[in-house]
Amino acid sequence: MRFKERVAIITGGGQGIGRSYAKAFADEGAAVVVADINGDRAKVVAKEITDAGGRAIAAAVDISDKAAVDKMVVDTLGAFGTVDILINNAAIFSTLTMKPFDEIPVDEWDKVQAVNSRGVFLCCQAVSKTMKAKRYGKIVNISSSVVVTGRANYAHYVASKGAVVALTRALATELGKFEVNVNAISPHGIVTEIPRATITEDQWASILAAQAIQRKGDAADMIGPTLFLASDDSRYMTGQTLNVDAGLRFN
Predict the structure, then answer these.
(1) What is the pLDDT of residues 43-97, one digit of tens each?
(2) Nearest to 84 by CA among 119, 135, 48
(3) Structure pTM?
(4) Domain count, the chain
(5) Catalytic residue (one of 21, 136, 154, 157)
């Protein structure tokens, strides 16, 4: 129950890894805001938490929309009085179709940047006033291994997740004097219930062969590192990007 007195906002919390985050934080005692662009999915997860005896509310929010993000934080403060933790998990990925960079339409590029990059910025901006005032906060941004591998035919996604790493470092510098920690996680090879038609079995075999631990990851593999970065166990870490990738990369 290390988060018994904490309030956590989980974006993209209505499905996939986000749903796992929301339930894991609730299991550890946190009051959880399940934020998702699909409000119905968010309500289902929030109900799962409250039915199990936890505290949660749902927030239907498009994180690329400043007004919607600001409202999410206002509603969080209204329901729970504060916000201690922000997990920036929401992103566009599984619905993308792989294509060479010179075939990516400008509107598709802009949409990916709006959610994956601007959305993280807006959410951090919205919670910062409360975190700075209380001199406490934990922000965990979800990036991706593609920033290092430069995976082909995903230029818009790679660029957006690179921006997340850069923003993490910039905010860590600005918010450190307020005792707010900002870190990132760079996952690789994580499988969820969300369908992905972008990786063939032959490609999976090649991916796994490059890893030290040669298996696919799942949501459970992301929970521990995320809880760690959101807890006081990591209070002397900020501006870091933690690789959760079965040993694909070594720092």
Answers:
(1) 999 999 999 999 999 999 999 999 999 999 999 999 999 999 999 999 999 889 8
(2) 135
(3) 0.94
(4) 1
(5) 157
